[in-house]
Structure prediction request, 376 residues.
Amino acid sequence: MSIRTTFTALTALAVASGAWAQENPRPEGLAALGPPPIPADNPMTPEKVALGEMLFFDPILSGNYGMPCSACHLPEAGWAIQDRISFGYPGTTHWRNSQTVVNSAYYGKLFWAGASGSLEHQARSAARGGVAGNGEDDGMEARLAFVPEYVEAFNEVFGDDWPSVRHAYMAIAAYQRTLVQTDTPFDNYMNGDDEALDEAQKRGLELFAGKANCIACHSGPLLSNEAYYNIGVPPYAGWEDDELAQITFRFELYAKGSTEEMYRTTKDDPGLYFRTKQKEDKGKFRVPSLRYTAYTFPYMHNGMLETLEDVVEFYDQGGGENEFAANKSELIQPLGLTAEEKADLVAFLGSLSGDEILPEPPELPSMQPLPAVAQN
Ligand code: HEC
Ligand code: HEC
Prediction:
């Protein structure tokens, strides 16, 4: 073999492995998103999804007939709301940032600290929770029964004589399983379309899986390993001087059974601790998906970071500091990224969101007097 042929063969080999992979990196540990899992006891039908859509937008499932799911999960605000902390049921404020419902179908545990095990269960907590829907089951069922279209739809979909609020939550869950996005530029790229990412995004992807090590936690098709970490998000400043927010926060500490001392002194959201009551879980939150984040600012459980640039800056500095510093993850370290690398990483994050999901809001049926009971 001449030197020349050997050289050509070696180049071909390099192109086939390392060099080619750098041009179009597809790191292990990341993947395109497939369809969401559907629980066997709540199969999807078009009629159920249509009912769930109406119920998601209808204030009928709340205490005051004024707080639909869509109030805090507005399609035009990334199916969330763009305040740091969500507003709450009238007379209250919520205590955490509103999460997008887009792609929530894929999570094993819902909410910032994973307090809910299914979308069905989550919808119930939202409709009944004191700082969210604040509804009573009896009242909500009675109202549904005054709407002929709902009576008919619950009968058709679930065989109900009277609409059951449990079935309402199942329909809402089914609807949310349609709010998924599997064709982002990232998905198309991972599925083989080399052109779906631009050069900056490809460099960003390599950083994500390499130097910046985001992939240690944001992995898999959802870009979340669904584990819990304290990454040092600083506390929400509003809790110091906003009376309403103080009331909600102290109430949550009390209602979720923290110690007397914590109830009196803690100024920060203990996150996973509420579920486990282990002090090493204070300040830990579920790793969120990075999908659809182009539309879901501000970021983190308390909305403390406004833009994706701020997020990358935050990680570059080695995260921040909160009351539970002892639990901060060792995976969060200063990254030493250059200005160009930061821009590339932000560009890559942009590839995880496709077009905004903006359906026409459904037409909502209204209450009618019940048919007169026959006199005898
Ligand atoms: C008053 C505002 C408000 C209302 C009303 C509301 N939500 Fe939420 N939603 C939030 C906030 C805030 C969070 C995060 C709460 C937490 O982690 O403790 C959230 C979280 C969620 C999540 C979890 C997403 C994830 O990534 O884990 C889903 C799903 C959801 N809401 C669906 C609903 C549905 C369905 C309804 C109606 C039945 C509803 N929400 C009503 C504010 C609201
Ligand atoms: C140690 C695990 C870990 C690593 C490493 C990590 N993250 Fe995160 N990320 C989290 C957790 C946990 C949260 C939620 C924290 C909270 O709300 O307090 C989060 C939140 C985010 C959010 C906000 C999402 C939202 O919906 O508000 C973005 C964006 C993000 N991370 C991007 C990145 C990028 C980019 C990197 C790499 C530079 C990275 N993360 C590295 C665990 C991690």
Q: What stands out?
A: Residues 61, 67, 69, 71-73, 86, 88, 94, 96, 98-99, 101, 104, 107, 110-112, 119, 122-123, 126-127, 132-133, 172 surround heme C (ligand 1) (CB under 6 Å). The mean pLDDT is 93. The radius of gyration is 24 Å. The CA atoms of residues 210 and 293 lie 21 Å apart.
